[in-house]
From TrEMBL:
GO terms for biological process: phosphorelay signal transduction system. The lineage of its organism: Bacteria, Pseudomonadati, Bacteroidota, Cytophagia, Cytophagales. Pfam families: Response_reg (PF00072). It comes from the Bacteria. The gene is barA_3. It is a multi-pass membrane protein. The keyword Cell membrane applies. This is Signal transduction histidine-protein kinase BarA. CDD domains: REC_hyHK_CKI1_RcsC-like. GO terms for molecular function: ATP binding; protein histidine kinase activity.
Length: 247
């Protein structure tokens, strides 16, 4: 997996609140977010985060779990109560230890140390990215590279990729996710087509779903959220394939 600068990362300049007490981690994450085009505000602890959240609305919050003065979980509980907007936005826990999303207040988590592409893919998934127009352009460009001027081959590719998306949705709704190795086989089956179209966010979303299923004690809420992300991305790709098929 790698950063994929060819695909737009957001449908608008999404606003992200980064809450991190470690100076080095804060600086690196802030620079990454800015480079990817996000509007970023930073807080060094939970109290600062509360003040910033009360002053304006953010589209997503990245929250370190262990901080002085007010820890991440307590901060998120307070932020969730600020408004209906904050009750529903994605809040991602940043933690050096693999921990379950605590008490349902966090939407998801990213284990530290993380690679830039892991953060980028998680943001793309929860901020409903890439934007449909950008995704359509990206798919169209990949199809052009694969098929050249052969329109018959292009239509065949679109039909095959669309069928793969439909099969992925069927696999996810089959009720077999609790079977050992089922999702690993599903991911393996679709990996080559995802990489041919360079659909890295969907590939990462499948890996994130596998990670939850591999936990000794699967968190049902996190499982549903990550499954929903995969389904949402797949539906978006399927819709854009239909659009480029008639373009």
């Amino acid at each position: 997996m790698r950063e994929n600068p060819t695909v737009p990362v957001h449908p608008h300049k999404a606003k992200v609140l980064l809450v991190e007490d470690n100076r080095v981690s804060r600086l690196v994450a802030e620079r990454l977010l800015s480079r990817w085009g996000y509007g970023v505000s930073v807080a060094a602890d939970g109290l600062e985060a509360l003040k910033l959240a009360a002053l304006g609305e953010f589209d997503l919050i990245l929250m370190n779990l262990h901080m002085p003065r007010l820890d991440g979980a307590a901060t998120v509980r307070l932020i969730r109560r600020l408004s209906p907007h904050y009750a529903r936005i994605p809040i991602i826990s940043l933690s050096a230890a693999r921990q379950r999303v605590q008490g349902g207040v966090f939407t998801d988590y990213l284990e530290k140390p993380y690679m830039p592409e892991q953060l980028q893919n998680l943001l793309q998934q929860y901020l409903h990215s890439p934007a449909p127009s950008g995704l359509r352009l990206h798919i169209d460009e990949r199809l052009q590279k694969l098929s050249g001027q052969d329109q018959v081959f292009r239509r065949q590719l679109v039909a095959l990729f669309a069928r793969n998306c439909e099969e992925l949705l069927q696999d996810l709704s089959s009720g077999r996710l609790d079977e050992p190795q089922f999702l690993a086989k599903v991911a393996h089956k679709h990996k080559s087509s995802l990489r041919l179209l360079e659909l890295f966010p969907l590939e990462a979303a499948l890996e994130n779903l596998q990670e939850v299923l591999a936990m000794q004690e699967t968190d049902p809420q996190l499982l549903l959220r990550r499954k929903g992300v995969v389904e949402q991305l797949t539906h978006s790709i399927l819709g854009e394939l239909s659009a480029v098929a008639v373009a």
